[in-house]
Amino acid sequence: MLSKRQNLMATIKGGNPDRFVKQYEFMHFIMETPGGRFPEPGQTIKNDWGITFKWPEGQLGGFPVHDDEHKVLKDITEWRKYVKAPEIPASDEAWAAAAAHAQRVDRNEEFITVFVAPGVFEMCHHLMSMEDALMALYEEPEAMHELIAYLTEHELAYAQALIDHLHPDCIFHHDDWGSQKSSFISPAMFDEFYLPAYKKIYGFYKDNGVELIVHHSDSYAANLVPYMIEMGVDIWQGVMTTNNTPELIQNYGGQISFMGDIDSGVVDFPEWTPEIAAREVERACRNCGKLFFIPCLTQGGNWSSFPGVYDAVSEAIDKMTKEMF
After folding, report:
1. Which of 118, 217, 269, 288 registers the highest number of CB atoms within 10 A of its CB?
2. pLDDT computed for residue 38 by the predictor
């Protein structure tokens, strides 16, 4: 029997896996890394960038507050006045808990994985709102290029700290690039503004010993897959059914792999049942096949919004392994 790590590599390299990769099983998350604050349900917080996040009770997640009082970046042409990158902790003490956790992981079995969020696109609209960010790409492209370069340099500095202290095998990087039906920006605009940034970031990780780049975007982004390949993404996690995952596998399998096709919105809701989970898992596995595909909830982490859903999906994947391998 292959290890989790070996089975993952056989799946994404077109080899001979002996079972379906079961969601996030190959990633061992190191979540004690310093820097970055996210709200819990019911909380309102301000992070180190000055961005205020609110997670209302009863909602599935939090989002920045963008009224006039709380918006960080009020004028893109004066972004240097408003945007100040936080200092990245450098002391061994700050990284001690994460480093100790990483040392306990069997790298032969699992990939030591660091969770990086938000990405460059999300940072732009977290600072100024989605509407302002999209308008700025059209109205003030020079200033947006400058801001993106600034955010990229900060990401690279954080990447260096991760590598120095943890030596990760895998990066799980969040940056949502679309809605369920379309990307937020055109491929041409993505190419101009965000592809160069990600080529630098993901290239830096790959040049410094990181084996796997897993990019999360639970959205439509089929039109951006060629750019994902160019920037060095190994696995696109969060691929929704609206992308036509089997077609993506047929067109791009061997260059990139696809993790998802089990839409969280269809499976992970208050009235969920094991039967719904089993139905969606079977559809995904039979349609997408054994190679270049990892059946997984589209949600960006090894959990579910409602108790029991993640485990039910994993159990259904085990059942499909028995039927298809």
Report:
1. 217
2. 82
In terms of residue numbers, what domain contains 296?
Answer: 4-36+75-324
Q: Is there a domain that residue 54 lies in?
A: no
What percent of the chain has pLDDT above 90?
95
- The model's confidence at residue 40, banded by pLDDT at 50, 70 and 90, is confident
SS (H, E, C) 263-295: CHHHHCCCCCCHHHHHHHHHHHHHHHCCCCEEE
The C-alpha atoms of residue 310 and residue 299 are separated, in whole angstroms, by 10
Q: What is the pLDDT of residue 151?
A: 98
Burial 210-227 (b: 16+ CB within 10 A, else e): bebbbbbbbbbbbebbbb
Per the CB < 8 A criterion, the answer to whether 134 and 186 are in contact is: no
* pLDDT at 170 > cutoff 90: yes
Q: How far apart are CA 316 and CA 282, in angstroms?
A: 8
- H/E element holding 296? strand 293-297
- Can you tell me the mean pLDDT for 130-155? 98
> Is 67 domain-assigned?
no
CATH classification of the domain holding 304: 3.20.20.210
Residue 291 has pLDDT above 90, yes or no: yes
Is 292 among the domain residues?
yes
| Tokens coding 12 | 């994404």
Chain-wide mean pLDDT for the chain?
97
- Those residues whose C-beta lies under 8 Å from the C-beta of residue 33, and which sit 6 or more positions away, are 95, 98, 114, 115, 162, 166
Tokens of 163: 């590598």
Residue-wise pLDDT for 265-277, tens only, equals 999 999 999 999 9
Number of compact structural domains in the chain: 1
Q: Which residues pair with 239 in a beta bridge?
A: 219, 260
Distance between CA atoms of residues 80 and 149, nearest Å = 12
- For residue 294, tell me if it sits in a domain: yes
